[in-house]
Amino acid sequence: MERIFTLKHQDRNGKARTGVLSLPHGEVDTPVFMPVGTAGTVKAMYHKTVADIGYNLILGNTYHLYLRPGTDVLSLFDGLHAFSNWGRNILTDSGGFQIFSLSKLRKIYEDGIKFQSHIDGSRHVFTPEKVVDIQQCIGSDIAMCLDICSAPGIDKKKTMKAMDLTHAWAERCINRRDSLLEETGRAFRGNLFGICQGGFYEDLRIQSAKTISQMDFPGIAIGGLSVGESKEEFKHFLAVAADACTHEKPRYVMGIGTVDYILEAVENGIDMFDCVLATREARHGTVFTDDGMLNLSRAFNEKNSGPISEGCTCTACTHYSRAYMRHMFKAGEIYGAMLASEHNLTYLYNFMLRIRQSIEEDRFESFKNEYMARFYANGGLCKN
Amino acid sequence: MERIFTLKHQDRNGKARTGVLSLPHGEVDTPVFMPVGTAGTVKAMYHKTVADIGYNLILGNTYHLYLRPGTDVLSLFDGLHAFSNWGRNILTDSGGFQIFSLSKLRKIYEDGIKFQSHIDGSRHVFTPEKVVDIQQCIGSDIAMCLDICSAPGIDKKKTMKAMDLTHAWAERCINRRDSLLEETGRAFRGNLFGICQGGFYEDLRIQSAKTISQMDFPGIAIGGLSVGESKEEFKHFLAVAADACTHEKPRYVMGIGTVDYILEAVENGIDMFDCVLATREARHGTVFTDDGMLNLSRAFNEKNSGPISEGCTCTACTHYSRAYMRHMFKAGEIYGAMLASEHNLTYLYNFMLRIRQSIEEDRFESFKNEYMARFYANGGLCKN
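The joint structure predicted for all components is written out below.
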């Protein structure tokens, strides 16, 4: 199997590392934050703006894209890149997590998951093979296996059963990937990542990380984190899983996007993460600053002629005051969501640049400590 | 009084004409369509995109801006240009029309209009003088007098009373404009336009047009049209009012934005018009094409890999298919509203270019006839 990850530098004082992912639509510096474009658009953003910021790897969502526009439409365009006119890399999740959180009814059985669409109640089945096929149709540069996520509080027996099924499905995904050329005349276009699970049990986390690491995957995701557990549990099980995973492949933690969780992940040697938080919060008028999250609707912004964040290069910070941004949100203007989304993605892109630089200079730990001290000086909220 | 309008060319076969408006923030070719940016933003559009299309005169709304963000905030920025970072021209309406359509309660008396905010029910008064002052605070390049609009069906006595008050208020607006330097230390920054009314009575329309034309205004608006009357009535009273207005000043018809009404206005020698329709329809997925209005959500777009409109230079038409645009609206994505708004404003900008060119070449009438025949071939709807 081809290796897609090249280590650039390991911080000499810890596990944090920089590297490069070599993907079909270009190279990606890691650690990387990936914006989420669920339905083939990063919400309230021109694709051009996302690219101009510097992002070259964004997410799409298999569950959403399968339901709408559907694989028949995507096939006409030979996938999501042409359909959405995004010439850079796309990672798609397997849809398993969305089935759990969005679909009306779902039932896991040996062969896959039955569920009803959250849009129209229509009935569907996702099997490991089908999920590979859908992502082949999408043309994902990084595709994910179908997995089963075990939330905190689920007993060990059930968690183990879900883990074992996740492992069996991982093998089935690999088999489908490897037989596509023969069975369809076209080899798999992307890089299939395995997902390790194991819930909130140390031995299962280690077992799953090792099992998935040994399989024929070019990259590994750590699933089932940031699903309702405490921050202490998150930190503990992240460290357990990250340590047990192979370090030769890129490691991806799914669904994290707050600065503290990103720093925690990087500290554990994680290379990739994604989250809807940056754009969702933006649409509600909450933006990142070095001094914590800023709620633009708050009254103290009313006559503030300064930018959201000094030195930020986004359109909001170079063209508009906090007073104008507050006005946009008070007036319910879409432009507020557009500008705040651009700001948050610009902020996180630059945040990752700062993280990578600190690793290259072997000072990630001090960067993290200084950043956290300032960001959380007011409990994580920017208050003036 | 300074003249702001220079006639370039009068179509030798009719009343349609081209010209140039000389305004504080640059020249504007006429006939001109002006996008509406009610609250200091053209909805779902980057200001940069609005400027890149070519627009150099947009609307703001006195009523909305007065209520939110308020003149105290606007004063901090010395007006809307800096507050909204729009370096080109801004026209503001007087707020009279919005008081009628939006505010909870309103009462007209000799001195002005009392009303309650549609946002929080707070009580306010607009007088002719106050409306001039607010627009001075906004820094409008073109400001409008406070007027009273008479809808069809209002009896002649009431219409005449409203007209007479509109004329008296016009004089008061002029007086306030001319005393600003002495009373506030700063001369009026913009160009105050008078508004003629007269409802749906020929003699009153003519009387009002002549009265307002003789006053010391650099431009004239024809108000009280497109307020519920039939298209035949609109055409008739537009022609009556336009003919009775001075032809030496720019003439502006408020609130029209469909292609047939724009063509009708141009045919009558009108130089300026505005409407929210282009951006409002866009947010609901309806876009302009030469073959009529296209509802992007309709099923026939599902697998259409072609653009909204061949040859259009907007982001939607150069980057995305109708299938993608439909997907955006079916999925409720803001990006759909952004792209469709950009398309509609690009379309109307180019539509005005075509109109101006046809006038320069003395073939406006044939342009209008050919355009209308194609646009209305299917009742004004693009069906494939």
